[in-house]
Specification:
Length: 251
């Protein structure tokens, strides 16, 4: 898995009950990280539908799926509030870093829940950037890189505390909450994290939102500079906090 917290996502889906034979909707599937994991978990007897509003992301997801060998996949372009009428019902709806971009997360969950069978699952992973960063010694470059990411999300209208709001979104949407968990992403000199890769991936957005210039970021040397800072300080750095939750639609 690439991106933020792949292992966390896997454990979240498995513990929630995403397993063999399930029909799963991955909402806001992007380039396919969660979607491919869901395909692996449901196996050949299951099915996965991935929906995203961005055509370029869907092209990338299709390419990855084609190379993965999974055949139980359907891709659709669309919005949460305008799902196809013939989509049918699902055993589970999953999403990662999707609700944070919804103007009304409760309304979005309530709308999505219409596509879940009675007793089915709604599973989301969201993040909170206000609890971190944390370290015992100053790590200014790491902190600055995190700020580039989260200031961009905030300026784009994202809710940078959506992780904390998962419980509220689920219960107010009428679902029965089963579990909420959180986990920090920890870096040490010998356990790096793909912080520079994430900055690289959203660099055009960072520049567009005027959070930082390409010259300030100097992306081609960022990874090396982050590694050097961790080695020089010999410190542990907590850079992100992930929340995951699942709930059931009442029977």
């Amino acid at each position: 898995m690439t991106g933020l917290g792949g292992d966390f996502t896997r454990r979240l889906l498995v513990d929630a009950g995403i397993g063999a034979g399930r029909r799963v909707l991955d909402i806001g599937c992007g380039t396919g990280d969660v979607l491919l994991l869901a395909c692996e978990l449901v196996g050949g007897r299951g099915a996965v539908v991935g929906i995203d509003r961005d055509a370029a992301s869907l092209v990338a997801a299709r390419d990855r799926a084609r190379n993965s060998g999974f055949a139980n996949l359907i891709f659709l372009q669309g919005e949460i509030e305008a799902l196809p009428a013939d989509l049918g019902t699902f055993d589970a709806i999953v999403g990662r870093r999707v609700l944070m971009y919804q103007p009304d997360a409760v309304r979005a969950v309530r709308h999505l829940a219409q596509q879940v069978r009675a007793g089915g699952l709604v599973v989301f992973q969201e993040h909170d950037s206000t609890m971190t960063p944390a370290s015992l010694v100053p790590m200014p470059l790491h902190e600055r890189a995190q700020q580039w990411i989260w200031q961009t999300v905030e300026r784009e209208g994202g809710d940078i505390q959506m992780g904390f709001r998962l419980q509220k979104a689920f219960t107010e949407a009428g679902l029965s909450l089963e579990d909420v968990r959180a986990e920090a992403i920890v870096q040490t000199p010998t356990t790096p994290y793909a912080l520079a890769a994430i900055v690289r991936a959203i660099l055009p957005r960072i520049v567009r939102e005027r959070v930082a210039t390409a010259e300030e970021i100097d992306i081609d040397t960022l990874d090396e500079r982050l590694d050097e800072e961790r080695m020089r300080t010999n410190a542990t750095y907590v850079g992100d906090m992930m929340f995951g939750a699942w709930a059931r639609k009442p029977t």
